[in-house]
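Researcher: Good morning. I'm working through a list of sequences from a screen, and I'd like to move beyond sequence-only analysis. For each chain I'm collecting a predicted structure so we can compare shapes side by side. This is the next one on the list. No need for commentary yet; just the structure.
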Amino acid sequence: MTMDWQGAPGSPSSYTVKRILRLEIPVDSYPNFNFVGRLLGPRGNSLKRVEATTGCRVFIRGKGSIKDPEKEDKLRGRPGYEHLNEQLHILIEADLPASIVEIRLRQAQEIIEELLKPVDESQDFIKRQQLRELALINSNNLREESPGPSGGGSVSPFNSSGKRPKTGC
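Model: Good morning. Structure tokens for this chain:
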């Protein structure tokens, strides 16, 4: 009999358990704070990092969870979008081995709660970090889109016909 990475058959760690935790977002207390932007981070990277670190899935749900208010209004009431009638909230979903599900859920909760703490912009270390990350992403995108030394975007010493460019000699 072989044992897989989860442990012996029938052991508590060999089966997965699904847990969902709901965290309310205090939009009523802080109406001008951009909770969704802070949670997502540049290109969604902050939320992706939480998911990668904890193994949990994180969902932003409720009124204001869709960027375009007109699109949100059109979707409200449709099947699968019932959450749009609720206050803005987070769902943290963990579908993990029983031995670690509670630990990972708590870990994700702690990270999300830290992101949900409204901070004065002058003291907001997380926002500064996110802006630095966005600047880095944008500078990399600019480098990829700008034409190279031969004018056609290629760094090859040959033009598109495969011949060397004229040098004036």
